[in-house]
Amino acid sequence: MIQIIRTAADNNDFTTLVQQLDADLQSRDGADHSFYATFNKVDNSLHVVLLYANDQPVACGAFKQLSSNTVEIKRMFTHPDARGKGFASQVLKELEIWASELCYQTSVLETGKRQPEAIQLYEKNAYGIIPNYGQYAGIDNSVCFEKKLSPAKNFSS
Hints:
By secondary structure, this protein is α+β, with helices and mostly antiparallel strands. 30% of the residues lie in helices and 33% in strands.
């Protein structure tokens, strides 16, 4: 059974998954990890999505406001035992729907070249590569993506 919930950054299941994500990124990024960790702090500005499989938290993601019409996707992670089942795409889609409901028009994100499965995920979900933005400008290991969000459907009519 799959369950997707919307929550906040103080959710204990999210915190646990983020700790696993940080350990994974530390091993991939090596000496570069401290640079990226600076921008991946979990704070209360995050809108968090958790995916549960058989009542176990196995995937997460979040977004935060980057500008008045743009969100930045953060903290995407799927537990290694749950990979290859489409869970990350489900989390990403829920984040996009939520952002659209809040009237955001664009979603951006950054991932690393040492995370080829993440690059594949974003390309599969219609994200296009853009020039590195903000703190990632000029960072060779970073790959930045953007996607225009579909307007939220209004069912009140």
